[in-house]
Amino acid sequence: MASETTLTPSSYIEHHLGFNTSSVGEGGFWVLHVDTLIMSVLLGVVVFGFLWWAVRGATSGVPTKRQAAIELLMGFIDNQVKSIFHGDRHVFLAPTAFTVFVWVLFMNAMDFLPVDIMAWIYEHVFHLSHWRSVPTSDVNATFALALSVWLLMIFFSIKVKGLGGWVHELFCAPFGSNPLVWPANFLFNVIEYVSKPLSHSLRLFGNMYAGEIIFLLLGMWAATGLTGTIASAILGAGWGIFHILIVVLQAFIFMMLTVVYIAMAHESH
Fold first, then answer.
1. Does the first or last residue of the chain, that is N or C, have fewer Cβ atoms within 10 Å of its Cβ?
2. 99: three-class secondary structure by DSSP
3. What predicted TM-score, i.e. pTM, was given to this entire model?
4. Residue 6 above 60 pLDDT?
5. Distance (Å, rounded) from C-alpha 185 to C-alpha 172?
């Protein structure tokens, strides 16, 4: 972190929002956000490793508290999927919805880690000058997730309707099959296909990035003296409690949009 004598509000925020990057390819054409990749994979391994461990110890008798909590969560998500998708949801869609919700939830929840304490640990323990703990505050991560859902949507649309049926739908829905309206139909569908991953990714990114900025702004008050420290602690606690709702709600919305998009791919206009 920048030294106390040179620390300014802009340098403080810039430092905390910097990524740990690595250039790939000739001339650094690709730039990987190493922190986003590692945190995403690490959270996935830890969270789903825990779930595997909990399910492995499940019994048909009286469930443990751990098993009961997971069963409640799975039942809740399964009911949400059942209300939208009327096919065999247990083959793919319900497990996918569960995976998306849990993974996004824990990536969002990394925003609760104290930014200054984590920055000190990353710098003095791991010798990393920049490291972002919240993968979903990186638009690259949220867009990658949304793009994966978008590709699944196209895959199931072609699988269910056939390639010919999918192309027919592109040109003949929603205004009819008259050749005169083919350009309008195609343009309408292209706009819809482009807007889905954009809105899907930017909604999650915008909320998590804004939450991170607010935590940083509240943390800056602590450098203004005792009054600022007290105000920062009180407002930070209040925002942290409210942010619990945002973290859970954004994971839920991302999951529901995933279910809706894939369910729509199974339907015809």
1. C
2. helix
3. 0.90
4. no
5. 6
